[in-house]
Structures are given as C-alpha cells and as structure tokens.
Design brief:
This protein is an alpha+beta fold. It is built from three helices and nine strands; from the N terminus they run αααβββββββββ. Strand 1 and strand 2 form a beta hairpin. The radius of gyration is 14 Å and the shape is globular. The relative contact order is 0.26.
Amino acid sequence: MLTWKNVIDFAVNGNPNPDRRVEKTEAEWKSQLTTEQYRITRQKGTERPHSGALCSIYDDGKYNCVCCDTPLFDSTIKFSSGTGWPSFTQPIKENAIKYEKDTSHGMVRVEVMCNTCDAHLGHIFPDGPEPSGLRYCINSESMILENKTN
C-alpha cells in the first residue's frame, strides 16, 4: 500500500518504470480526444467541481486512462470525498501513476499523471481515509470506466 511518504519519494527521486510507454504527436492526441479531454489530459486543465460524469458513479469496474486505456484505479478503492471530483485511495498498480511536484497556482501540490502516456489526471493529497490516508483527486474527463461483466 502506497503512503504519502512513498508519493513524495516518487515526486522527488523518480517514478517507477511503467509496464509500457505510449507516445503520440499533439496532432494525434487532438484527433483522438474530445476538446475537453485534450485540454485536461494534454494541457493540464481541470474540470469544474461536480461537473464530471464519473463523480457520482460507483459501478464495479476499472477506471482506465482516456488517452492510452491503461488501468489506473479500481472501483473498490473509490470513495466519496465531497470535493467534486472522483476520488481514490490507491492506484490499481504502483507503477500506473506518475508523480510530479506542481508549483502552479501559487501553491505546492503533487500532480498525478498516467505513467504510460503522461496524461494529466489530477492531484493527490494526504487527507484521504485510512489506512493509506491518500486522496487521488482525478478529473472525470481523464478516465473511462470499464465496467466489470460477469
């Protein structure tokens, strides 16, 4: 289980290697994504709170990167944070997420990105529920929900 100490260590000292890499030109990303998906994932944008389609969905499944389809989070670790964005306590795998120090907007935060394609997902904070205490605050537009089928 990842802790805030692990997150800071990754942000400062480097991230785990991803299972694979996906790299495309900006033109390729623009042709694949909607305008809003591109603004958020490739230009580090943020959707308005409570506006994302995945905020209030708690269906069983995996949340995959909208850019490269890499599994990022599982529905079993999603929780209602009341912040207006989908929130998770852990990534699906330690090397699914990339962490970087973010000093934009006059504050210090830790940005989370897809470790496969560098898509901006959101930010992580140390104010989540136990046992990890982590809250991955993720833009709905950066993910697609792959529902579990029985």
